[in-house]
């Protein structure tokens, strides 16, 4: 074949699904990588996708995303007007690919209804294959998918373009999509989509900047107010609160991977020093090897002195990073937290109890206040009391000369997370109970009692009722904490483990590097019981990514030898009893269960038949 000859797309599809090699440049790189991810998950090209959310579930998702959607209204209104005038549909999805809203051209909307591109439908890659919404979310980058580039046959009449939307701490919020006839969806529409995304992200950053100092950076001082400038927002003590995409890159942060940063660490001088020399005037700042023109603006509004230095995190919905956890569990936990009822999370080691606690804080009304965590099992028994309650100077040998506030007072106004509460020493349990009941703390060594206002989240892998029965945990503290215990299920009970692994890989940046799972690895992940749960899976994936070259197809050969042996001992397959359980959880839908297992429906029936004999 001549090097410049282009294969018809139908022939490319035939070769790909037959497992044959494709010539170079046969497909755009992002489309090929998406196809490879979908094939790794065992998704069939003839699939019809997922089910529709109930009205109550859709309403809950809209409520979870209400804050950023409200900020996006002006940009969405302008984009809707353009879409309607050009015969296109505008679709808004959340960060998991669930369609929240749809509007635009009536004729196309009728077609979209037939293709299930409507509110309440799941358009993630794991459900709908390669499509603009799901692929943009997976790759954390814009995506354009035309006709038969869609992975599923039923979607080949669609042409779509989508762009992810990020919050001011780099968190993935959702995606905007324009869909319509291929001839109507060109570069001009793509630019409209990107402009709307930029307008939304600028508005969210503006709202986050109202209580902080806003730093603008650019090599050219004339462009400090333009969209290309790096924008960073700092609290008055110099902690980074928010940033635009350029600002995140300057700080070495990937989208959806926020970490604390400080003005002094970034620029070699404190925020206070900059203000003393430059005030609000134009100045120069050095960030590593780069030199910028800079301008620092004061907060748009002053916040109360008691919370002035607290990070002002923007509202956000329940994150996709909770990896297969039921939305209803998260919603229940959030309602308890907002009602000032202790949240008790129970679950096996590695199920993500700490991640759930942090996500609850980030989604709560106290997201701008501190989140203070302490592991009750990791601190020596002789020190945990001082860690929790603080101490006066000289209270004990080795104590700091300045004393300590303690974790309970550090969490004042915010959320305290007591991890492994079941391992708290018995003598400390009584003191914690009194502090929770009286809402005040007295430090070790005496001193006045201090009032505290905290919301409490506790977590344990232990059976607290059994601990109460054997005298290891106080009954009165148990009943103070155990209003409505929430059980976090292990990974093996969260549905398709390979789909969860793929979502975790996407969050780690695998899609951008073109790294994807092979079908054999996906089957092995589904068949393994994961005794270390999400922690074990997450650690494995992070290690595989660190070792893999860009464009690699992760297979069994990439796994550590010990893990391959463990998987081999389990036969690289799910036990028949687990298959029957999965079929029950799929409501008896054999096609859905077979798809989750990466096997054909006939194979599923054959194995169920053997188990019944």
Uncertain parts? 302-318
Count, helices: 25
Helical residue percent band = 40-55%
Characterize the overall form: globular
Give the overall average pLDDT.
85
When the domains are counted, the total is 4
For the record, what CATH class of the largest domain applies?
Answer: Alpha Beta
Describe this structure in words.
- The chain is of the alpha/beta class and 613 residues long.
- The protein folds into 4 domains: 55-205, Beta-Lactamase, CATH 3.30.450.40; 213-298, no CATH class; 326-487, 3-Layer(aba) Sandwich (Rossmann fold); 493-612, Helicase, Ruva Protein, domain 3.
- It is 41% helix and 15% strand.
- It is built from 25 helices and 19 strands.
- A 5-stranded antiparallel beta sheet has the order 2-1-5-4-3, with helices on both faces. A 5-stranded antiparallel beta sheet has the order 8-7-6-10-9. Strands 12-13-16-11-17 form a 5-stranded parallel beta sheet.
- Helix 19 packs across helix 20 (519-527), helix 23 packs across helix 25 and helix 24 (590-597) crosses helix 25.
- It is globular.
- The relative contact order is 0.08.
């Amino acid at each position: 074949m001549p090097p410049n000859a282009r294969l018809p797309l139908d022939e490319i599809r035939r070769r790909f699904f037959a497992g044959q090699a494709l010539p170079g440049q046969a497909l755009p790189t992002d489309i090929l990588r998406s196809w490879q991810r979908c094939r790794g998950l065992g998704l069939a090209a003839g699939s019809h996708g997922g089910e529709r959310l109930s009205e109550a579930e859709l309403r809950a998702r809209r409520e979870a995303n209400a804050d950023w959607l409200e900020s996006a209204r002006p940009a969405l209104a302008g984009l809707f007007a353009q879409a309607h005038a050009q015969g296109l549909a505008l679709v808004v999805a959340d960060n998991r690919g669930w369609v929240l809203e749809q509007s635009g051209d009536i004729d196309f909307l009728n077609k979209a209804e037939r293709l299930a591109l409507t509110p309440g439908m799941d358009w993630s890659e794991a459900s709908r294959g390669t499509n603009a919404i799901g692929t943009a979310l997976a790759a954390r980058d814009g995506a354009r998918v035309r006709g038969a580039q869609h992975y599923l046959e039923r979607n080949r009449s669609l042409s779509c373009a989508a762009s992810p939307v990020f919050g001011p701490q780099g968190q993935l919020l959702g995606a905007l999509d324009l869909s319509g006839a291929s001839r109507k969806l060109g570069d001009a529409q793509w630019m409209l989509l990107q402009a709307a995304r930029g307008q939304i992200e600028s508005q969210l950053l503006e709202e986050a900047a109202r209580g902080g100092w806003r730093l603008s950076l650019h090599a050219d001082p004339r462009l400090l107010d333009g969209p290309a400038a790096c924008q960073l927002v700092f609290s008055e003590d110099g902690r980074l609160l928010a940033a635009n995409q350029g600002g995140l890159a300057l700080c070495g942060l990937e989208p959806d991977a926020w970490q604390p940063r400080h003005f002094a660490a970034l620029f070699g001088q404190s925020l206070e020093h900059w203000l003393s020399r430059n005030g609000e005037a134009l100045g120069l700042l050095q960030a590593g090897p780069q030199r910028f023109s800079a301008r620092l603006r004061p907060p748009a509004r002053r916040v109360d002195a008691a919370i002035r230095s607290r990070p002002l995190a923007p509202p956000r919905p329940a994150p996709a990073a909770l990896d297969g956890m039921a939305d209803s569990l998260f919603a229940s936990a959030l309602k308890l937290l907002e009602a000032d009822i202790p949240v008790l999370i129970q679950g096996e080691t590695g199920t993500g109890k700490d991640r759930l606690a942090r996500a609850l804080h980030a989604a709560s009304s106290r997201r701008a206040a501190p989140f203070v965590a302490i592991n009750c099992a990791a601190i020596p028994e002789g020190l945990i009391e001082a860690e929790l309650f603080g101490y006066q100077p000289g209270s004990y040998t080795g104590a700091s000369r300045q004393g300590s506030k303690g974790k309970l007072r550090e969490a004042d106004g915010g959320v305290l997370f007591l991890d492994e509460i079941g391992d708290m020493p018995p003598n400390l349990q009584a003191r914690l109970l009194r502090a929770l009941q009286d809402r005040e703390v007295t430090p070790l060594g005496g001193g006045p009692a201090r009032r505290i206002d905290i919301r409490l989240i506790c977590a344990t892998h232990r059976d607290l009722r059994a601990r109460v029965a054997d005298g290891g945990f106080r009954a009165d503290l148990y009943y103070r904490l155990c209003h409505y215990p929430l059980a976090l299920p292990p990974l093996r009970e969260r549905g398709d483990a390979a789909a969860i692994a793929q979502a975790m890989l996407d969050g780690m940046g695998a899609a951008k590097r073109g790294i994807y799972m092979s079908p054999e690895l996906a089957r092995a992940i589904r068949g393994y019981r994961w005794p270390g749960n999400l922690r074990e899976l997450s650690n494995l994936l992070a290690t595989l990514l660190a070792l893999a070259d860009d464009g690699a197809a992760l297979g069994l050969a990439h796994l550590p030898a010990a893990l391959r042996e463990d998987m081999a001992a389990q036969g690289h397959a799910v036990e028949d009893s687990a298959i029957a359980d999965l079929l029950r959880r799929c409501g008896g839908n054999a096609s859905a269960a077979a798809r989750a297992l990466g096997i054909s429906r006939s194979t599923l029936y054959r194995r169920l038949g053997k188990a019944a004999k």
